[in-house]
Design a protein that fits this description.
This protein is of the alpha+beta class. The chain contains 2 helices and 3 strands, in the order ββαβα. β1 and β2 form a beta hairpin. InterPro entries: DUF1272.
Length: 102
């Protein structure tokens, strides 16, 4: 089950389950679109993978057992464990390599 994390790991802005600007990598690291695009240039600072829009989990149960009611978002806020200099180095070294070749 995809963990819907509540915030951008970089700028800490709120990303509720219905946020159209939430981005995730294959490890579910979560960032806002502004950070993913304009600061990280599609390079996850945790794994160097790329980002995709985070799916929006339905708020209404239209199939039994499937909705935010049954699978609520996480309330565990995350923050980056790497410093800006380290992140900048990784992003600079990686951003011109397509995610599929990283």
């Amino acid at each position: 089950m995809l963990e819907l994390r509540p915030n951008c790991e970089m700028c800490d802005c709120d990303l509720p389950p219905e946020a159209p600007n939430a981005r995730i990598c294959s490890y579910e690291c979560t960032f806002c679109a502004a950070c993913a695009d304009d600061v990280l240039y599609n390079v996850c600072p945790n794994c160097a993978g790329g980002f995709v829009p985070r799916p929006i989990r339905p708020a209404t149960e239209r199939r039994v057992g499937t909705s935010l009611l049954h699978h609520p978002p996480s309330d565990d806020r995350r923050c980056l464990k790497y410093g800006l200099e380290n992140i900048t180095h990784l992003v600079t070294a990686t951003r011109d390599i397509p995610p599929a070749r990283r």
